[in-house]
């Protein structure tokens, strides 16, 4: 709603004015406005509402025949200049699912019913999860909003669309009574590291120790170079993340400003890094890559200087560890970060401490993802309450 201003005229009388946006001028490409003036606030307010309604209901778009695919391509050319390469790849992946449904439609012909059928089909066919369908709705909204801004479209057909529920959402199963734990308990971490130290390659053991004792993201771990470690102070600098786009390794800035952080490593982890540095340094020299070593290579790399693949630790867990220990409680690599957060909370760390350690921009992110309490913490709470009551 445009702001209505009270204006005092030279003759002492009062009028009310508001400037209303009418759309883009197709000839100049600049925005058009009209000024509404009246002697009473209510009269101006009513006229503003009428003008806005007229524009929405009757406006003439400047390109009546643009298709959804064409609109997406226009929007994407602008969007990809303002996001990271990894985000560009994500958008392209999501749009590959959306375009078969909407690409050939003229945007002015896309109705809410068409959008709803698309989401219904995505969910009912089980090709996509309901959470993914919600993501596709978000991207469609972004493109339709771009169309409205550029006068290709009057109303957003995705505005009132909902991601449908499916029959399974309403049927109770035994799984509903069991909350899936997305982290390891302290005892499981201790056991895993003992097994990893005995059975896995040394550098894999060091990588898992780093994940579990720092809570850093997998991409942040792979992006570490030797100058990110200060062996004198025990500090580890997190300033970048590794992504792989079109089969090329690319170093990006961290996920957010808060992700750019320095954390302290415990002495045992520092000692392991020192041992690994000596081992990999000798391998670089044996392979004739002394100059490459002197040029600050990645911490976890081949003697050729090539980064370990981002799927490396996933493969170790899925095709090595879990194969030999099928009864061990299964979590993903990212859930090792969840594990670190859980153990931080259990050890008495505050929300603010955990937020800083994990590099979350917003406190709400920390609260949303890590508000679960470990089984140990829950038992302590019950025991403490019983002791307090003394009955």
UniProtKB/TrEMBL annotation:
InterPro entries: CB (IPR044068), DNA_brk_join_enz (IPR011010), Integrase-like_cat_sf (IPR013762), Integrase_catalytic (IPR002104), Integrase_recombinase_N (IPR010998), Integrase_SAM-like_N (IPR004107), Phage_Integrase (IPR050808). It comes from the Bacteria. The keyword Iron does not apply. SUPFAM superfamilies: DNA breaking-rejoining enzymes. Residues 66-148 form the Core-binding (CB) domain. Signal peptide: none annotated. The keyword DNA-binding applies. Residues 179-383 form the Tyr recombinase domain. Keywords: DNA integration, DNA recombination, DNA-binding. Belongs to the 'phage' integrase family. This is Site-specific integrase. It comes from Enterococcus wangshanyuanii. The lineage of its organism: Bacteria, Bacillati, Bacillota, Bacilli, Lactobacillales. The gene is xerC.
């Amino acid at each position: 709603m445009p702001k209505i201003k009270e204006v005092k005229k030279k003759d002492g009388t009062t009028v009310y004015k508001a400037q209303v946006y009418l759309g883009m001028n197709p000839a100049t490409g600049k925005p058009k406005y009209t000024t509404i003036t009246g002697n009473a606030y209510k009269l101006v307010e009513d006229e503003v509402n009428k003008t806005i309604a007229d524009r929405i209901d009757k406006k003439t778009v400047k390109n009546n025949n643009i298709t959804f695919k064409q609109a997406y391509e226009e929007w994407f050319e602008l969007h990809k200049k303002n996001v990271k390469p990894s985000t560009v790849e994500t958008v392209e992946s999501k749009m590959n699912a959306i375009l078969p449904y909407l690409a050939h439609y003229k945007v002015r012909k896309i109705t809410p019913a068409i959008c709803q059928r698309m989401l219904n089909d995505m969910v009912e066919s089980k090709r996509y999860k309901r959470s993914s369908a919600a993501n596709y709705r978000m991207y469609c909204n972004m493109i339709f909003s771009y169309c409205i801004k550029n006068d290709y479209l009057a109303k957003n057909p995705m505005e009132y669309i909902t991601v449908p529920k499916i029959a399974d959402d309403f049927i109770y199963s035994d799984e509903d009574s069991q909350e899936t734990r997305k982290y390891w308990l302290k005892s499981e971490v201790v056991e895993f590291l003992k097994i990893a130290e005995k059975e896995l390659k040394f550098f894999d053991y060091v990588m898992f120790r780093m994940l579990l004792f720092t809570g850093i993201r997998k991409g942040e771990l792979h992006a570490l170079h030797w100058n990110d470690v200060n062996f004198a102070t025990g500090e580890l600098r997190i300033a970048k993340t590794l992504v792989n786009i079109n089969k090329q390794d690319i170093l990006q800035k961290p996920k957010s400003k808060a992700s750019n952080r320095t954390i302290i490593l415990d002495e045992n982890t520092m000692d392991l890094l020192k041992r690994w540095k000596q081992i990999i340094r000798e391998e670089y020299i044996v392979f004739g890559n002394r100059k490459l070593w002197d040029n600050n290579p990645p911490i976890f790399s081949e003697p050729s200087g090539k980064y370990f693949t981002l799927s490396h630790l996933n493969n170790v867990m899925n095709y090595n560890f879990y194969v030999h220990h099928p009864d061990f409680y299964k979590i993903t690599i990212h859930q090792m970060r969840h594990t670190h957060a859980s153990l931080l909370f259990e050890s008495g760390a505050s929300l603010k401490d955990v937020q800083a350690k994990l590099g979350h921009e917003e406190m709400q992110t920390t609260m949303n993802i890590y508000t679960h309490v470990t089984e140990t913490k829950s038992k302590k709470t019950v025991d403490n309450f019983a002791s307090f009551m003394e009955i």
